[in-house]
Amino acid sequence: MMIYVPLSQQNRILTDFLFLWTIQVEKGDNYYINHFHMLRAHTSAHQWDLMHSGLDAFLVAGDVYRRDEIDRTHFPVFHQMEGVRLFSYHELFADVKSMDTCQLFEQGIRTPNKQESHTLEAVKLVEFQLKQTLSKLITHLFGEGLEIRWVNCYFPFTHPSFEMEIKFQENWLEVLGCGIMEQKLVNSGNKKYLYICIFLNNHFKLNTQLIYT
Questions:
Q1: Does the keyword Aminoacyl-tRNA synthetase apply (predicted)?
Q2: What is the pLDDT of residues 65-105, one digit of tens each?
């Protein structure tokens, strides 16, 4: 997979992922090969492309490059992994007894717990599956008895959004971020699904190094 991207594509990436103009992307945060190409700073752009191709579940992994100061949990070169799973109405509510009364979408209002186009019942089911899946993954990687907590946070392309933290040496250590993708982005890929976006953020590899070394 190509590790550099044209600057014009980078601008399209930010537009596709609903970054607001108020979010500043500083040139000093990235590595540039020349005036036209830069080293890949994230793998998020591939999500939209793969979803647009018709896939409804996939993982994206790749090496990325950022001008981070080196410390115990930061390094300028690291591997990022992201995952996506789209749910149809029947997939999400298959085990609900009163399935006929459930809905994926509504014309509502945005709250801290949901987007304006999603029903609260759909969001809660997706959130439960999202957190349960990632908790099992991290427990498998780091061992049983792991103390985990979830923190509400903000990402430009998901709402609601969450960060997972684990207890390590009496401190809470962030290991990943996740959330329910903005429906506008899902619709731009010609998909009429409620969609969860699972991604392991840039601390994942470094936190593994910190714990096992």
A1: yes
A2: 888 888 777 778 878 888 888 888 888 999 898 888 999 99
Q: Please report, for residues 3, 99, 111, 150, 171, the alpha-carbon distance to residue 79 in angstroms, rounded to integers and kept in the order given.
A: 11, 40, 33, 23, 24
User: In this structure, are residues 80 and 61 in contact, taking their beta carbons and an 8 Å threshold?
Assistant: yes
Q: Which tokens in the block code for residue 134?
A: 């990632």
Q: Which two tokens stand for residue 117?
A: 């186009």
Contact yes or no for 123/112 (Cβ under 8 A): no
Scanning the structure block, which residue is given the tokens 């085990």?
A: 95
pLDDT (mean) for 14-20: 46
Per-domain residue ranges for the chain? 4-212
108-127 residues labelled b (16+ CB within 10 A) or e (exposed)? eeeeeebbebbbebbbebbb
**3-state SS class at 205:** helix
CA distance 176 to 66: 17
Q: Please say whether the beta carbons of 44 and 13 come within 8 A.
A: yes
Residue type at 115? Answer: Q
**Cα–Cα dist 77/206, whole Å:** 10
- pLDDT score of 27: 62
- CA dihedral (66, 68, 73, 75) positive or negative: positive
- Whether residue 212 is predicted with pLDDT greater than 70 in this model: the reply is no
Spatial separation of the C-alpha atoms in residues 21 and 142, rounded to whole Å: 39
